[in-house]
Amino acid sequence: MANMQKAIVYKGPGQFAYEDRPIPEIKNRNDVKIKSYGCAVCGTDVNIFATPQKHPCKQDIIFGHEFCGEVAEVGEGVTDLKPGDKVVIDPHGPCGECDNCLAGLPEACQHVSSRGVFADGGLTNYVVLPKQYCYKVAPETKPELMGVAEPLAGCGCALEKLNVHVGDTACVLGAGPIGLMFIALLKANGCRKIIVSEPIEHRRKLALEVGATRVVNPDTENLQQIVKEETGGLGVDHCVEAVAAMLVDCVYLVRPHGKVLQFGHDELARPEFPVAELLKNEIEVYGGYLGKYYMRKVAQIIESGILPLDKIVTDVIPASRYQEALDLAASRQCGKVFVSMDL
Ligand SMILES: [Zn+2]
Ligand SMILES: [Zn+2]
């Protein structure tokens, strides 16, 4: 059929299907029609397809939130984008009209959409979005690197809370795609030591390639002891939790007045917390999640090549083999997996 396109649709716990969906058209003057290049696989996607399910998702939506593409058509109110421009997408785009948006706090938008989780996303050929979801990157930027925009915005935005300085020391728990992005960001921020704990050998190697100064296998080595050795008995300045269930460990790895960032996301994690350690060492604990106001900067980071994103994105798999991409991400024998559109 002429006005239809193939899409990967979420069909309930553990299931997706290839379905025909109408090609969306521009309806509002600020709309942008995007030809999707594809979509990276997120840990959230793995959690959505896990059994039991670890993250909610709306049934029958077009799946995939970490997508990117090329402008195909713009509404009459869009003057800063034109057909052919490459754009990274903020799937949690702000509405631009609610009280928080008007107060300059788009990250706290009261009508936040989550394209690809609770509304139609990017695992299809064409998507129509308001212009404030789209951020232009240089023409030579590779699509698979553009796919990291959404998680990198979350990481970059969260890391600003730690106020990292040149010469600081850091520990990152977990070297999955999110951990790898934090390692690269900490390196770019000038950390002199980045100690990374990761049980999977392949991911420890990736960690070293993107900037870790020491990798630790927590199954066979004593991370706390190694961190003390590496920091003259003190503990690190910053500890990033990129696993989901290891917040407590972070408290024992930072120096007095050290900073902990919880970024690993598991809706079911309920760790018991060592309150006395926290208060006696005056540790600062931050949470990080979405990076909405950070998207402009992320577009600039990606196109500049300042981070080794080509080492973080380890696999490109066509959308016609989506199950393979999900299985690979779930196996953890990879960095970031990008699903390229071939439907
Ligand atoms: Zn994501
Ligand atoms: Zn809003």
Automatic annotation (TrEMBL):
The keyword Flavoprotein does not apply. Keywords: Metal-binding, Oxidoreductase, Zinc. Coiled coil: none annotated. Signal peptide: none annotated. It holds the Pfam family ADH_zinc_N. Its cofactor is Zn(2+). Residues 12-339 form the Enoyl reductase (ER) domain. This is Alcohol dehydrogenase catalytic domain-containing protein. The lineage of its organism: Bacteria, Bacillati, Bacillota, Clostridia, Eubacteriales.
